[in-house]
Amino acid sequence: MGFIDYEVEGFVGIITINRPKALNALNDEVLGELEQTFDAVDLGAVRCLILTGAGDKSFVAGADIGAMSTMSKAEGTAFGKKGNDIFLKIEKFPIPVIAAINGFCLGGGCEISMSCDIRICSDNAVFGQPEVGLGITPGFGGTQRLARLVGAGMAKQLIYTAKNIKADEAYRIGLVNAVYTQEELMPAAKKMAAAIAGNAPIAVRACKKAINEGLQVSIDEGAAIEEELFGSCFESYDQREGMANFLRKKDDPKKVPE
Ligand code: CAA
Predict the structure, then answer these.
(1) Of 2, 12, 124, 257, which residue is the least packed, with the fewest Cβ within 10 Å?
(2) Catalytic pick from 7, 9, 131, 213?
(3) d(CA 90, CA 112)
């Protein structure tokens, strides 16, 4: 593919948006290739994904401003729908996706990171929703996911002022889980992905579904979703083996407590 690289290391797939000349900005082609890449992930072999940007300057600097500059209302609506559909696909993707944010994470870049399960970043990362400065709203989910992640008051401040924030502020408001040096970022993402991939895959998938679906409904409905998914894990090989292993270790007199 021209703009997306995909490689698999063990149980972990690494998707890299590779358009460094435009700071990995998202145009129709990049979005299309991204969707094809997600569609092609072998869910029988891959248990966790990392999404990152090529180069050391930018994760994704937003949707392509040049491409949007001449769009009609209908084209703008269709472009927003294309981005939203793909980002919803990422949000609902059966396995976890970690965004490894290695620089500018603006507009559509911030929005794609928010469709991932977990965000970690490098210390040169810059976050923001600059859209109102360009005469538009965030269009790939920013008005919806930012408020859910950092609260309505902070989301409104960031979106209305169009002011960018640095990595430490993104960490303080809970937009990212951790900040690393540029060199440490990918090793940290791979370590986290390997830890996730080392756990029971059916259970991890069920956790993602339970958290995501539960956040959309009342606590009672959420509890019912959890019950269903909790029950679905039983009789699986991982459940039987995982629990039997624990019980075997408990009965082993040679076991050294950790
Ligand atoms: N779209 C298209 N091209 C972009 C781009 C974008 N979002 N961001 C950067 N580029 C291009 C620049 O045009 C430039 O290309 P040329 O070399 O051909 O001129 C190249 O990437 C390098 O960019 P700069 O020279 O501007 O680099 P810089 O270091 O001086 O500045 C920056 C970096 C602060 C990120 C600046 O590029 C910038 O402000 N980019 C736009 C960020 C933005 O507003 N993003 C939101 C877009 S709207 C959106 O995303 C809508 C939505 O919700 C769907």
Answers:
(1) 257
(2) 131
(3) 8
> Which ligand 1 atom is the nearest neighbour of the CA of 133?
44
For residue 252, what pLDDT is reported?
73
- For ligand 1, whether the C-beta of 106 sits within 6 Å is yes
Q: Considering just the CA atoms, what is the radius of gyration of the chain in Å?
A: 20
Residue 89 has pLDDT above 70, yes or no: yes
Contact 20, 54 (CB under 8 A): yes
Q: Is 87 in the pocket of ligand 1 (CB under 6 A)?
A: no
**Mean per-residue pLDDT for 189-218?**
97
Q: Are 221 and 157 in a shared domain?
A: no
pTM of the model: 0.96
202 Cβ inside 6 Å of ligand 1: no
- Residue at 62 is within a domain: yes
Q: 105 with 46, same domain?
A: yes
d(CA 165, CA 175): 11
Is 29 annotated in the active site? no
Query: Which atom of ligand 1 is found nearest the CA of 109?
Result: 50
Interatomic CA distance for residues 258 and 254, integer angstroms: 12
Q: Whose CA is nearest to atom 12 of ligand 1?
A: 22
Q: Count up the domains in the chain and report the number.
A: 2
What does the pLDDT read at residue 258? 55
Domain that holds residue 178: 4-197
Q: What mean pLDDT do residues 6-21 have?
A: 98
Residues 43 and 104 in one domain: yes
**Tokens at 231, concatenated:** 């029950």
Residue 225 counted as domain residue: yes
pLDDT bracket for residue 254 (50, 70, 90): low
CATH number at residue 47: 3.90.226.10
Measured in residues, the chain has a length of 258
What CATH number does the domain containing 213 carry? 1.10.12.10
186 and 228 together in one domain? no
pLDDT at 13 over 60: yes
